[in-house]
Amino acid sequence: MEDSANDEIIKISNELKSLEIEAESYKKELLSLKQKRDEKNAKFSELIKKGKENKELRDKVNEETKKYKDLREENSSKLKKIYESLSKIKEATKNKDISSSSTIEKQIDSIEWKLETEVLSLDKERKLVDMIKDLKKDLKKSKNYEELSKEADFSRKDLEILKKNSEEYHKKVLELSDESTKYHERMIYYFNSSEDIKKEADAIHNNYIEKKKNVDEYYDKIRELRAKLKGLEINSRKAQKQEKEKKIKEKKKELSKKSEDILEKFKNGEKLTLDELKILQAGGNI
């Protein structure tokens, strides 16, 4: 019975040791998977961070681009108005041979002086008065022309400034658009890469979960065997103790009987040996 229990203990101990070795191997594999998963998740977080950073940079550049587009649009509107103004000026002064206002004013002054200082015939006087009327009309046209010319000079100066601004704004828009495209492409790259890394991390995690189930099953079996082994060892020690107590009891009984037999021999006057005396003493009969 005791040998059978010992055999069972040895069998379970060997099975337990084998399971513990396998479980430890799986545990190391789990730790390796966990490390790989955590590294992938860290890489995923890093890529998401970079993606967001490039998105923020792109959005900032887009705001700047919009500002310069608005300036370019406003500039273009001003240019259009100046071109329209110059076109009207050109049309108003086209094919006009008009003397300067100062020349006409001198002519008027000369005729008026003549009218005031000379004695003229009525017919001659009327002609000079009519000439003054015509010259005054020419003077009005001349001054109008000169105003338009001044406006044209002013508009041309503005035109050069606005043309320069248009070139600068357009150049800036193109530069910012290229910069925005660069950040956008980087953003797309980082976000797409993060998706790939996330898929890898999820695959490793799923593998980790499956492996962990196996490891948990191993440790459940190990706990079960340890409990069973502990029970067998307790029972074995208990059986050994009972067996030992039984032997001691039987030995005492045997010793008591021997002691009684020797005592009877002693009572009968027989001489006892040293060993018999020891037995008699051990039996409590002397």
Describe the structure.
By secondary structure, this protein is mainly alpha-helical. It has one domain (2-261). Helices cover 92% and strands 0% of the residues. Helix 1 (2-92) runs antiparallel to helix 3, helix 2 runs antiparallel to helix 3 and helix 3 (122-267) crosses helix 4. The two termini are 40 Å apart. The mean pLDDT is 83.
Number of strands: 0
Low-confidence stretches: none
Oligomer: single chain
- State the shape: rod-shaped
Order of helices and strands: HHHH
- The helix-and-strand class reads mainly alpha
The description of the largest β-sheet is: none
Total domain count: 1
Distance between the termini: 40 Å
Question: What share of residues are in beta strands?
Answer: under 5%
Mean pLDDT: 83
Offer a concise description of the structure.
This protein has four helices and no strands. With 286 residues, it is mainly alpha-helical.
Topology of helices and strands:
Elements: H1 2-92, H2 101-117, H3 122-267, H4 274-282
Helix pairs in contact: 1-3, 2-3, 3-4
Task: Please supply descriptive tags for the structure shown above.
4 helices; single chain; 286 residues; mainly alpha
